[in-house]
Amino acid sequence: MGINPEERVNKQDVIVNVTLEADLRDACANDRIDDTIDYKGVKQSILALVEDSEFFLIERLAQAIADVCFREPRVQIAHVSVDKPGALRFARSVAVQITRHRDGHAG
Fold first, then answer.
1. Catalytic residue at 40?
2. What is the residue extent of each domain of the chain?
């Protein structure tokens, strides 16, 4: 991921943080795994996406990660941040954070 030619050849490190909002009252009341989000499945899908991605922009990667989160039917809101350490000289990192709603509202 990246714009520069060397970024296109060599994989870049990224740090992804995801916070999901969902109605989990059934899981809270019943303590049943079937009533919650498949966190492991979401994580594995995000890892596969990031590993195989060839996006130029971290903004596009963040959107693609949010799209993956909405494959889980209980997720109503996804907060996604993508941090690219060492992307700029004299800066620790470059990051983008987006919020997406299942109904299409972008934050």
1. no
2. 5-101
